[in-house]
Automatic annotation (TrEMBL):
The record marks 156-157 as: Cleavage. PANTHER family: L-ASPARAGINASE, N(4)-(BETA-N-ACETYLGLUCOSAMINYL)-L-ASPARAGINASE. InterPro entries: Ntn_hydrolases_N (IPR029055), Peptidase_T2 (IPR000246). Keywords: Autocatalytic cleavage, Hydrolase, Protease. The gene is iaaA_2. It comes from the Bacteria. It comes from Candidatus Phycosocius bacilliformis. This is Isoaspartyl peptidase. Substrate binds at residues 185-188, 207-210. One of its GO terms (molecular function) is hydrolase activity, acting on carbon-nitrogen (but not peptide) bonds, in linear amides. SUPFAM superfamilies: N-terminal nucleophile aminohydrolases (Ntn hydrolases). The active site is at 157 (nucleophile). One of its GO terms (biological process) is proteolysis.
């Protein structure tokens, strides 16, 4: 049965730097996800597991590798969407928890809401029994430690999209957001339809300058292009990304469709990414 999986570790990696370590880890995680799908796991469980591993490794600007905001606080965003019934869960500005994607999944599974933010998200994550960070200075190992401009692209958001053997689609994304961001700033990642989307046609996870992805509703636009425009997945992704770029933004995305097609386009310098499919395709790349 046709399963497909794509992962990303963020748009905008710097040329001239080696990403061997990140690529090797991405390949390991991708292999585990491919095995899960091969064994019949649900797309939803696979994308949450993949993003959880990418959060925990500390190699990307998400989870353990996140950077603090301009006030030195680690405020993280994440979202998950299940294409089957369009159920979704998300957290914005979550402080103090190791796995924002687990918190997003708990919002989806355990509340009548889609998005919880700030103190409310924190209280909910605590009541859901999710693992806390403890001392932030001891836990976080920021993937980017050089001085940064406010709002600089983090090139380390992580995401996963999958089509499972039963034809179900799901998407998950997690991020520390833009580097040196203003306290309270929330990007596209936890906004359903902007940075994350899944329905019966497509599953999409975006990375890049979130403000532009929000203003172009990139993830939902891809579904609309397929649905109303009859576009292929590749054409829909290219069109939505071009619309975002026209506004002045930068970034990329990963997407799968109901037939198991995969697209991983980007308009940034590069994008850490991996693709695995039931046909034996297995690749991990950062640049072209
Ligand atoms: N899209 C993320 C945000 O704006 C950042 C990134 O993908 O690097 O929060």
């Amino acid at each position: 049965m046709a399963w497909a999986l794509a992962l990303h570790g963020g748009a905008g990696p710097a040329r001239g730097r080696s990403y061997d370590r990140e690529e090797a880890h991405l390949a390991e995680v991708l292999r585990r996800g491919a095995d899960m799908l091969e064994e019949g796991a649900a797309a939803l469980d696979v994308v949450v597991a993949m993003v959880g591993e990418l959060e925990a490794c500390g190699f990307h600007v998400a989870g353990r590798g996140a950077s603090a905001n301009a006030d030195g606080i680690y405020e993280l965003d994440a979202a998950v969407m299940d294409g089957v019934k369009r159920r979704a869960g998300a957290v914005g500005g979550l402080v103090g928890f190791r796995s924002p994607i687990q918190a997003a999944r708990a919002v989806m599974d355990q509340t009548p809401h889609v998005l919880l933010i700030g103190a409310g998200a924190q209280a909910f994550a605590k009541s859901a029994g999710l693992e806390e960070v403890g001392d932030p200075a001891a836990y976080y190992t920021p993937a980017v430690s050089r001085p940064v401009e406010p709002g600089e692209l983090a090139h380390g958001t992580v995401g996963a999209v999958a089509r499972d053997t039963a034809g179900r689609l799901a998407a998950a994304t997690s991020t520390g957001g833009l580097l040196n961001k203003m306290p309270g700033r929330v990007g596209d990642t936890p906004l359903i339809g902007a940075g994350t989307w899944a329905d019966e046609r497509v599953a999409v996870s975006c990375t890049g300058q979130g403000e532009y992805f929000m203003r172009a509703a990139v993830a939902a636009d891809i579904s609309a292009r397929v649905r109303y425009g009859g576009q292929t997945l590749a054409a829909a992704c290219a069109g939505a990304l071009a619309d975002m770029e026209t506004q002045g933004g930068d970034g990329g995305l990963i997407a799968v469709d109901a037939m198991g097609n995969v697209a991983t386009p980007y308009v940034s310098e590069g994008m850490k990414r991996g693709i695995a499919t039931h046909t034996g395709r297995f690749e991990v790349k950062t640049f072209r």
